[in-house]
Amino acid sequence: MNKAERESLAGLLPFEAEPQLPDGRQRLLKEFVMVEIRRSAPRRRLVRPALLAPALALGVAVAVGVPALLGGGTPAYAVSKNADGTLTITINQAKDPKPLEATLRGMGVNAVVDYIPGGKRCSPQPRSTSFLSRQEAQNPADGRPFHIWPPNTDEPGFRIDPAAIKPGQTAVLEFSVSADEKTAGIWANISNGPVAACTLVDSDEAPLGPPPGWDD
Predict the structure, then answer these.
(1) Calpha distance 13→15 (Å, rounded)
(2) pLDDT, tens digit (0-9, with 9 covering 90-100), for 17-54
(3) Cα–Cα dist 154/164, whole Å
(4) What distance in Å separates the CA atoms of residue 96 and residue 182, rounded to the nearest whole number?
(5) Torsion of CA 127, 129, 134, 139, to 10 degrees
């Protein structure tokens, strides 16, 4: 193909995607485009603390117990206080129950907390000789059970009512734990007397609470 044929063929092609400019003008054009992009980029607005307070005041629940964070900034657990005085407990990693127990006690809730892995259960059972019966626990005289089910909150988790624990009583919270350290269930009751410490033992029975018939 000679020069005339090449020029004739080039005239049939579409225009160049990037028109050729002198080096100086090309550099200035690129700098201008980058400045305009930076000017057009939306700026992130920081929410001032003064704007956060009213939002929290209007919320249904306020997180009052937040422990050390897991990797990625997720707390191992959190305790939120609801407008009616009840508490919502959210557990993201059921590894060590004592920090949660300490948080509840710091909030005035006299409670014992234990995590029960699969294939285990607490010994001895029952851990108290003065637990409320199922009837007393589920239908107390004042109409305020300790463990509220369903939780009826916007948060996933377990809901308890500290007002159900009277002076001299101790609440017991046993959580069953899956292999990935997530909570799978809860057993909750209130004792009028001492509560034995939980010693984990191998078991093929239900992992939580006393055996069937304990309050017959």
Answers:
(1) 7
(2) 344 444 544 454 444 444 444 444 444 443 333 323 33
(3) 22
(4) 12
(5) -110
- Residue written as tokens 């003008």? 25
pLDDT at 97: 96
In degrees rounded to 5, what are phi and psi of residue 64?
A: -115, -15
Residue with tokens 């956060």, as numbered in its chain: 52
Query: Which long-range contacts does 38-44 make (Cβ < 8 Å, 24+ apart)?
Result: none
CB 189 within 8 A of CB 131: yes
SS3 per-residue string spanning 138-171 = HCCCCCCCCEECCCCCCCCCEEECHHHCCCCCEE
Residue with tokens 């009751």: 189
pTM over 0.85: no
- The pLDDT assigned to 73 comes to 61
Q: What percent of the chain has pLDDT over 70?
A: 65
Q: Is the dihedral of CA 66, 70, 73, 76 positive or negative?
A: negative
Residue 11 class from Cβ within 10 Å (0-12 exposed, 13-18 middle, 19+ buried)?
exposed
